[in-house]
Amino acid sequence: DNLNTLFRIAEETLKAELAAGTNDIDLARDAAQQANRLTKGKDPEVLSQLAQIALLQGDPASAIQFQTDAIGAMDPEFREQRMAEYEETLRGYERQKRDPNRRTAP
Question: Is pTM, for the whole model, over 0.85?
Answer without folding.
Answer: no
